[in-house]
Amino acid sequence: MTSYDDNNIFAKILRGDIPNDTVYEDDHVLAFNDISPQAPVHILVIPKGKYVSVADFGAQGSAEEIAAFWRAVAQIAADKDLPSAGFRTIANTGINGGQEVPHFHVHLLGGKKLGPMLARSEAA
Ligand code: 5GP
Asked: Which residue out of 57, 101, 104, 108 has the highest number of ligand 1 atoms within 8 Å of its CB and is therefore the one to mutate?
């Protein structure tokens, strides 16, 4: 598994080196608006721990961190009134997944009908 890069953009956000538009924070989790939103609601939820991907987080994260993370995703979705109409969570991973920032994050997207999961040209 790729080792964690302390210079990735989300590490800089966590250190306070780069500003962010925070929507949620607790001991284990930070969530902020995506700088380039793809939907009316586009929030990035990240663990504060140094995990490269969902695979890394799921394998190496503590039970407390994992519980806190998914509780936060649910809490933010509820705070934004997303569950009734529906929403999407995405965790891009590695090269095939199109992951640009190598710190585990979940995209929380909603506020409109989001269409098919993949563009037709990208489907299998
Ligand atoms: P990925 O492709 O890794 O799943 O998604 C990375 C996301 O991070 C992209 O949606 C991109 O717009 C967002 N992003 C990149 N740099 C910044 C930044 O400096 N601030 C914020 N808020 N989002 C960023």
From this structure: 101
